[in-house]
Write a structure and sequence with these properties.
About 50% of the residues lie in helices and about 15% in strands. The protein has about 425 residues and is of the alpha+beta class. It is elongated, with a radius of gyration of 36 Å.
Length: about 425
């Protein structure tokens, strides 16, 4: 009789023992699938954080003639792993058509009471106040490189001046500034409001000068910033540096090194910022690593437990083994029977574990305790775990049977007599 036929007869005849082995494989598979579920979910959440939070580095010059301009930005972006970048400038403009929130200069003869700070850049959302969450976009949208003379202003400034998204206002250089720098344009600049922001933290104290108050901050596009500075010989320069958001924070160090290699670092400074990303992603990475270790530990413990159980059962089958040997069956033939019996149990246990694990993971998600988790382990993970459990069962069977089958036939038969 073929080994697989004897194995099937044994499984059908020894139902209680077979059910116990199936349950052992079922429990092992479920635990390993749940670990895989948590591991994959943590990896997914970590990847989402990399996209949402990301990491960045800033290139600044030393104000001694070095220029940070668009050509340098294109050069660094060509190195790869750059999601987006934004050059930064700051201009102080004067306007009586849009009145700043009053500060310490209100009611004085100072021009500063009519001046506000205009932060220009390719992406207003990359400006530090927005990245730290001190400011949040409440209405409309952020400024992008496609904009031309667009602006994002504070809600307080909009309400005071009766402005909303889609409205326009104008500003120009202060008379005193034009007197000192006649090369600048004396024409007013017109801006269209595309967004309105709120201040999440404590409001700027009103004992500060109007241009330094966050309520009076205006965020405009880089093209507008260059046009405002067109009378300056270095109008294409980003005086406050350029921030580069990397696509994959894990490669931040290599990206920064590559950027430094194409710059004369004697005249530039590189500031890396990945603190928020590391603080957010480290717990997820630790959990992912823990689940990997736990899955490996379960495989090792499962092998040991199954080997002990199978060793006890196979020892109880010494008579059966002796009979097989006495009728001329080879040890290899007997071992194939034992392996087939174990694999049948592990396969059945693995199949039953899939719907059970699905039910557990669905129940956990429905309770709302872990909505950020995957709905179910991926098909690849299920296949890997299933193959692992089968391999563990085979290994346990080998460990349990090899010691007994290494005995000489005479020794086994002498035990029977």
């Amino acid at each position: 009789m073929k080994p697989w036929k004897r194995a099937w007869l044994y499984v059908c005849r020894e139902r209680k023992r077979s059910i116990r082995l199936i349950l052992l494989c079922l429990v092992l598979t479920v635990f390993m699938l749940l670990c895989s579920w948590v591991q994959a979910s943590m990896a997914q959440n970590a990847e989402a954080l990399r996209k949402i939070i990301g990491a960045s580095f800033r290139i600044e010059d030393d104000a001694e003639g070095a220029l940070i301009n668009d050509s340098m930005i294109v050069q660094i972006e060509g190195l790869g792993n750059i999601r987006r970048s934004s050059g930064e400038n700051l201009q102080l403009l004067y306007s009586e058509s849009i009145r700043p929130i009053p500060g310490m200069l209100a009611g004085t003869e100072e021009e500063g009471q009519y001046m506000m700070s205009y932060y220009s850049g390719h992406y207003s959302e990359l400006e530090q106040h927005f990245r730290t969450g001190e400011l949040i976009l409440a209405e409309g949208r952020h400024v992008t490189p496609e904009d031309s003379f667009s602006a994002v202003i504070s809600r307080a400034l909009a309400e005071q001046n009766g402005l909303s998204v889609g409205d326009s206002f104008s500003a120009s250089f202060a008379p005193g500034t034009l007197a000192e720098r006649p090369q600048l344009s004396d024409e007013p600049f017109s801006f269209t409001i595309v967004g309105i922001f709120d201040i999440t933290g404590q409001q700027t104290q009103l004992n500060q000068a109007e241009p330094s108050m966050l309520q009076n901050a205006v965020f405009i596009d880089a093209a507008a910033g260059h046009a405002i500075d067109s009378g300056d010989p270095t109008h294409s320069r980003y005086r406050y540096g350029v921030i580069f958001m990397v696509d994959d924070p894990r490669d931040l160090e290599q990206t920064v090194s590559a950027a430094q290699s194409v710059l004369d670092m004697q005249h530039f400074k590189c500031v890396v910022d990945d603190t928020e990303y590391r603080q957010s992603v480290q717990p997820l990475e630790r959990m992912e690593t823990l689940m990997k270790l736990l899955t490996g530990a379960l495989a090792g413990i499962g092998t040991a437990v199954l080997a002990l159980v199978l060793l006890l059962w196979i020892r109880q089958r010494t008579t059966e083994i002796g009979i097989y040997l006495s009728i001329g069956l080879s040890k290899r033939n007997i071992l194939l029977q034992f392996l087939t019996e174990s694999m049948v149990s592990s396969v059945i246990g693995g199949i039953l574990a899939i719907p059970l694990t699905f039910a557990i993971t669905t129940a956990v998600r429905l309770t709302g305790a872990a909505e950020q988790m995957l709905a179910f382990p991926s098909a690849i993970s299920v296949c890997v775990i299933w193959i692992t459990v089968v391999a563990v069962t085979v290994l346990a069977t080998l460990l349990a049977a090899i010691r007994l089958l290494r005995l000489q036939p005479k020794t086994i038969l002498s035990v029977l007599s």
